[in-house]
Amino acid sequence: MDDLASILNQAEQLTNRIDGIGATLELPRVDRNLKQICEETQQLLKAGGQPAGLGQQDVNASILLGAKGVDVPRLSQKLESLSATANLEPLEPIQETDIQSFLKNERENAILAILEETRKETYNHFNKICWNSIQSDWEKNKQKIIDSLGGARESILDLTAPSGERSLLGDTLSAYSTLSNEEMVYARVVAEFNDVVIRGGVKPSLAEKFAKAVTTFGDQRLNEIWKMIEVMSEVPLVTSSSPVLARSSIPVQNSLVRSARKILENRYLEYLKKEVYRNLSSARLGGSIGTFHLVKSFLGTRQVSRQPGLEDGLVDGQPVWAIVYYCLRCGDLEAALDAAKRAGPSLSEFSRNLEEVLASNDCRLTPNNEAQVKLNYRRTVRNATDPYRRACYCIIASCDPSEDHSEIASTTEDYLWIKICQLRADGEEEMGASREIRFTLSYFQSLILEEYGERHFDAYKEPLRYFEVLFLTSQFEAAVEFLSRIDKWRTLAIHVALALRETKLLLLPESVQSPLISKVPTDKPPMRRLNLARLVMLYTKKFENTNIKEALNYYFFLRDLETPDGTNLFTVCISELAVETRQYEQLLGKIEADGCRSPGIIDRYQGVDISVQEVIQHIAEIAETSGQFEDAVAIYDLAKKDDKVIEILIRLLASNVSRPATTDAKIVGLQRHAHNIAERLRSARRPVPSHLSSTFYLLLDLATFFGLYHSGRVNEALDTIAQLRLIPLNQEEVDSRVSMFKNLAEEIRRNIPDVVLATMNLLLNKYKQQRSVPSPSLRKTEEITRDKFLSTTRAQARCLITFTGMIPYRMPSDITSRLVQMELQMN
């Protein structure tokens, strides 16, 4: 009874104490009898010591949150209350009389509205990012497909071209052909031009050199094309300004227009001579020379004087306006003036206008006189029946640009010449006395390229004619891009682009990753940009593997272009070519026995905005990035980047040092190369970071150790590993080797398990060899020596086991078990 009374007294005191603590900490009061406590205890035991209904993760979460002061039950209640509004729908309105509830409702609605708006914005933003990424990937892949087919985007999408010209199969197959005879002629000109540039001489006209070279082809049409390019590229440019600003300036545009006009006039003059000499009997040229008599004879062969509607009389039996027109068509203003004066007073006003044009520097009337001629044209000349008279007024004063003059402009060149005579540079309408809109160059370019286009000129049947139309209207980029789509003329296109690039007439995009032809929003329509880098790389792709020197000559034109990361494009191209072909010795040279680098092809370009050292280093970086580590070692060695050479060799040796070299020629070559580099570095005393050199030389020593181990030379291998002082072979060395292990490079640590296992194997083999000798055959001293050796070997094995257990490195489980087994075999 006393014991029960004392227990009851203690229970009451404990209850009071708990009540006091609970009141202070606000703990919940739990009232349970003994039976309930026993049942709860049994349930906890059955559940593995966990409260019923709770998993281990829930228990851990409750403990963690409770330690941070989070009230888990109250938090659960809040979450349950929020779940009622998880659909984020607006709450039902509250009667306005209940102000407190109304404000609470409005506040909750405002929060829900913000949450919903944020959710929608996040979804839209995420959706936009996803689609932009997909579109960007598609554009890149699409451009790769187009590049692999060897053509531009329009060559695939343009369905107006004949099937023979649009053959994608032909474009694909041509990408794998070698240089033809025609391409070799162009390549030699490019090489000669680059030689002059590299030597620092005065650069010749590349267009002129191409024009001279193509005469050997015997193609008169091609000769005319290059003569046109040569004349058009002689436009004087301000070198300090960009090509875009220069091409948009009034002086340059006027110069381009005059050059195009001169080309068409010279061609027509040659045409008249051929026609007259072909029909000498009817031409009646006689002994007279000059454009006037040539035109008069030409008109005699055409019997123009018998045509109705010709006005203002005849000169020497031919209609005067026809003579004036054809003299102008041949570019001889003096002959036209002579014919006008011979007509007498009827053409006196026109003669005065011609005299003014001849006296001016730009062969133009003054703005006021031009306006007066236009007024006269609108009043009287427009309704004249003589088409030659109307054409002459339109030519000298740019009257009525919408008139096609189809009666006399029977060819594309005639039409083009008349329109070019009427052209005015962009912006000139703001400078003259008249404020009327003029027939500007950009307007005519848009008319030719966008309104008429390839279908109107039947471009794929006569590609050179459409090319000339674009080129003579100063649309060089569109002209080159069009020719590049046709396999037959792609060679011409690339070299025209190079010639224009050297005269700074070619407009390039802002990024070398742009499509072959592109528009820039800030450029005035219909201006285009031509991606010369893409065009050159598409052209050289078919022969860069077989004609490396020729490919480099074309890459040389890209030396002043840069990739988005600022790398010289010539460096990028030659790097990709070197890594793809792996012709490193031919391109970069090689290391001779004396340690010097013999020159390669690339050394030809040293000093012309190109650093051979930087190019070699960039090639090494690409080789390393692409996983060609052995090549990267050799190339970094050429670049004299000893730290990178040692760094990559360490990486390679660490991965293969424990493998038997005799089974893999690649490992043999790697180790031989590493030894050669080590010898060269020692003899040349070239500085290498100490942490790299120590790791490198230690790996070479480990390679020697494993070589001895795999060849079965037990004693030499044990002597080598003892000299390396890498692992302990007696008890006194254990602590020092463990301390030294912490300072080893990761490449060395990674091979420690193999080193320990190989050493244990050597010890076990030596142990078994000594133990296999029968005791009766040994003298007493020899048996004592053998027992001492066996004891020392067992001690060394225990040192290795102790060492592996003390170093801060997780040994592979299979190696650990094998070490223990071998150590047990020595007992």
Structure explained in plain terms:
GO terms for molecular function: structural constituent of nuclear pore. Keywords: Membrane, mRNA transport, Nuclear pore complex, Nucleus, Protein transport, Translocation, Transport. One of its GO terms (biological process) is protein import into nucleus. The chain is mostly helical and 827 residues long. The protein has 6 domains: 1-50; 108-148; 168-218 and 443-558, no CATH class; 265-439, no CATH class; 642-693, no CATH class; 712-827. Helix content is 64%, strand content 1%. It contains 39 helices and 4 strands. It has a two-stranded antiparallel ribbon with strand order 1-2. Helix 10 (220-232) runs parallel beside helix 22 (463-472) and helix 38 runs antiparallel to helix 39. The longest helix has 50 residues, at 99-148. The chain starts with a helix and ends with a helix. Residues 22-26, 49-54, 150-177 and 430-435 have low confidence and may be disordered.
